[in-house]
Amino acid sequence: YEETFIKAIVGQIQGFAEYGFPESHAASFALLAYASAWLKCHEPAAFLTALLNSQPMGFYSPSQLVQDARRHAVEVRAVDVTVSTWDAALEPSGQPQPAVRLGLHMVRGLSQAAAQRIEQARALQSFSDLADLALRAQLTRSDLQALAAADALAALAGHRRQALWQAVVSAPDKDLLKHTSVAEPVVLLAAPSEAENIVGDYHALGLTLGRHPLALLRPRLTKQRFLPAEVLNTFADGQFARGCGIVTVRQRPQTANGTMFVTLEDETGPVNVIVWPALVEKQRKELLGASLLGVYGIWQCEGKVRHLVAKRLVDLSPLLGQLHVGSRDFA
């Protein structure tokens, strides 16, 4: 090649090196990582609020973010049509850290326009009951049912089942009778069970502020000798272990030569599972299809890094009943 061509190529490489790889990229990521870590450590409530308001994004689902924040003493408050705004917001808590109020944007089936009408009507005067909310915020029956399903009407209508019943009769009529009230006798319905509320929370919000689903299943899992994450974390390196949790993440990086990494979550925290390629192929159905996964394996720990290396997998999804939970899969 001619010398001028060589010098041009070298000059281009030198120019890229001044901003490209590796120092500048490393510094940029390091700054982002440090700032995020600082916020999570010192302002965990604000950090959670910002992440919830930036969804969909990133590696962790809103449920995982909320579970982690609550394990770190952040108070998270339910969606409430009498106080919630579209976005999640900080509220005084009487503690050093403010509380996080979940936003109306988390209610599946509720539009931002409907939420804005709720906020505008509420700013003029507090809602007296469900009919008042429906009339002044111009909510449709589907709007009310979405709010009721999310248990966001508790302050006006009582528990979820009662609110769903009232939503049917409180929606304003769009025709000639829209300004008239319907005289319906009050029907008192039995409150949902804890399990029914958890199922309803996940269906309407994608998360629950009640107990973790595995807390309800723990007696049955204990009989099968599956241990919670907090117990597994006390195990020594090389010890045989049984873990079980809701599958939250599946990863199969191209650089991992077919190895899959799975994150399980129970009521005490996450468990990271390594599944070697041979087991991936042997138990693909359980690995990819299970919402609740049991793992028999060897506990591996080095310093603060801990994994469960899988030897056998069991699909325990039937134990979840009507509860449907999703995972974030990266393959």
Secondary-structure blueprint of this entry?
Elements: H1 3-17, H2 23-42, H3 44-53, H4 62-71, E1 76-77, E2 89-91, E3 99-101, H5 112-124, H6 130-136, H7 141-149, H8 154-157, H9 160-170, H10 194-205, H11 213-223, H12 229-232, E4 240-251, E5 260-266, E6 269-275, H13 277-282, H14 284-289, E7 292-302, E8 305-315, E9 328-330
Parallel strand pairs: 1-3, 4-9, 6-8
Antiparallel strand pairs: 2-3, 4-5, 4-7, 5-6, 7-8
Question: Could you tell me the strand content as a percent range?
Answer: 15-25%
Q: Domains counted in the coordinates: how many?
A: 2
Low-confidence stretches: none
Would you tell me the structural class of the helices and strands? alpha/beta
Largest sheet: 5 strands, mixed, barrel
Coarse morphology: globular
N-to-C order of helices and strands: HHHHEEEHHHHHHHHEEEHHEEE
By DSSP (H or I, 4+ residues per run), the number of helices equals 14
Termini separation comes to 43 Å
Rg result: 25 Å
Got a strand count? 9
Mean pLDDT: 89
Can you characterise this structure?
The protein has helices at 3-17, 23-42, 44-53, 62-71, 112-124, 130-136, 141-149, 154-157, 160-170, 194-205, 213-223, 229-232, 277-282, 284-289; strands at 76-77, 89-91, 99-101, 240-251, 260-266, 269-275, 292-302, 305-315, 328-330. It is of the alpha/beta class and 331 residues long. The protein has two domains: 43-207, no CATH class; 213-330, Nucleic acid-binding proteins (OB fold (Dihydrolipoamide Acetyltransferase, E2P), Beta Barrel), CATH 2.40.50. The protein has a five-stranded mixed beta barrel with strand order 4-5-6-8-7. It has a three-stranded mixed β-sheet with strand order 1-3-2. A hairpin with a 2-residue loop joins β7 and β8 (305-315). α2 (23-42) packs across α3, α3 (44-53) runs antiparallel to α4 (62-71) and α7 packs antiparallel against α9 (160-170). It is globular, with a radius of gyration of 25 Å. It starts with a helix and ends with a strand. The model has no long low-confidence stretch (mean pLDDT 89).
